[in-house]
Design goal:
The complex is a heterodimer of chains A (112) and B (110).
Chain A (H helix, E strand, L loop, with lengths): L4 E3 L2 E4 L5 E6 L6 E8 L3 E9 L2 E4 L8 E7 L2 E6 L8 E8 L5 E3 L3 E5 L1
Parallel strand pairs in A: 2-11
Antiparallel strand pairs in A: 1-3, 3-8, 4-5, 4-9, 5-6, 7-8, 9-10, 9-11
Chain B lengths: L3 E2 L4 E5 L4 E3 L2 E2 L6 E7 L6 E5 L10 E2 L10 E3 L8 E8 L7 E3 L3 E6 L1
Parallel strand pairs in B: 2-11
Antiparallel strand pairs in B: 1-4, 3-8, 5-6, 5-9, 7-8, 9-10, 9-11
The chains are: A mainly beta (112), B mainly beta (110).
């Protein structure tokens, strides 16, 4: 198993553009998490799903952020429109029965 | 409310010296505590969890409910221990959701 897969690994875009980050969790895992990591705020949970259903999206910064999980093997995090303050590393993680979380390599987003 | 506190953003020690990374939590129930580690250019990964009471890579962590602490310790630090360490907590009422501290960057000098 390749573990959690994220794409793209790096994204550079201009302010106002739409950004879509993708995640493929480990097969069989029933939880999926999206995190954002910045120097100032550390690791923040944005949203998490259980069996493809969003459970807690209280960490989503604002309406510009949205996340979907159309099936057990795919999730997206979308930012529209993007702003420079969205620049960060975005991690996806998955787990089984809520214990050990397995993280993807992250997507480094730069919004100019 | 900050549930997991790691008071040190940066910690430096010399190789062979003891190291302790501090973690305090605020939760009145019975939490599960974890330490995650992120080595340079690697994924964030689980280092250890209090429930298993094991030593991983020479690291141990004891849950002290009286002091609400879960400090990570190693008697003799190695250069390869240099990494970012995150303390994390799961509350019994919110299965699945990990609350992370802000992290401590450990540097072990040769």
């Amino acid at each position: 198993d390749a573990g959690v897969i994220q794409s793209p690994r790096h994204e550079v875009t201009e302010m106002g553009q739409e950004v879509t980050l993708r995640c493929k969790p480990i097969s069989g895992h029933d939880y999926l998490f999206w995190y954002r990591q910045t120097m100032m705020r550390g690791l923040e949970l944005l949203i998490y799903f259980n069996n493809n259903v969003p459970i807690d999206d209280s960490g989503m910064p604002e309406d510009r952020f949205s996340a979907k999980m159309p099936n057990a093997s795919f999730s997206t995090l979308k930012i529209q429109p993007s702003e420079p303050r969205d620049s960060a590393v975005y991690f996806c993680a998955s787990s089984l029965f809520s214990y050990e979380q397995f993280f993807g390599p992250g997507t480094r987003l730069t919004v100019l | 409310a900050q549930r997991v506190t790691q008071p040190e953003k940066l910690l430096s020690v010399f190789k062979g010296a003891p190291v302790e990374l501090k973690c305090n939590y605020s939760y009145s129930g019975s939490p599960e505590l974890f330490w995650y580690v992120q080595y340079s250019r690697q994924r964030l990964q689980l280092l250890l969890r209090h429930i298993s009471r094991e030593s991983i890579k020479g690291f141990t962590a004891d849950l002290n409910k009286g002091e609400t602490s879960f400090h990570l310790k190693k008697p003799f630090a190695q250069e390869e221990d240099s990494a970012m360490y995150y303390c994390a907590l799961i509350r019994g009422s919110t299965l699945g959701r990990l609350y992370f501290g802000r992290g401590t960057q450990l540097t072990v000098w040769p």
